Automatic annotation (TrEMBL):
It holds the Pfam family SCO4226-like. InterPro entries: SCO4226-like. This is DUF4242 domain-containing protein. It comes from Psychromarinibacter sediminicola.
């Protein structure tokens, strides 16, 4: 399995939409657990105020990432294989948990 970074640009209008996608992602991720594992995500505020994300997944291949995105209603063409981890520190306490 490789580590992937997925950037979803401004696809949510609000935190309720983001939370619904997160729930769906957990469900679909469980169904795909032999091909994909959600590591973490960071929600970001886009310049237009919409919500985007940077997600870290472990997956068997890009097709698993693509299928997962389609099934949760959050596809992305901005998918990269991570080459490594540069800084190893715990994340700070979250401001908001979605």
């Amino acid at each position: 399995m490789d580590l992937y970074i997925i950037r979803r640009h401004g696809i949510w209008l609000n935190e309720d939409e983001l939370a619904a996608t997160n729930e769906k992602s957990l469900q679909v991720g469980e169904e795909m657990k032999d091909r994909l594992r959600w590591i973490r995500s960071y929600a970001v505020t886009e310049e237009d105020g919409r919500i985007g994300s940077v997600c870290i997944y472990e997956a068997s291949d890009r097709e698993a990432i693509r299928e997962h995105g389609e099934r949760i209603g959050a596809p992305s063409e901005d998918v990269r294989v991570a080459r490594g981890t540069a800084v190893k520190r715990d994340d700070p306490e979250p401001v908001t948990v979605v």
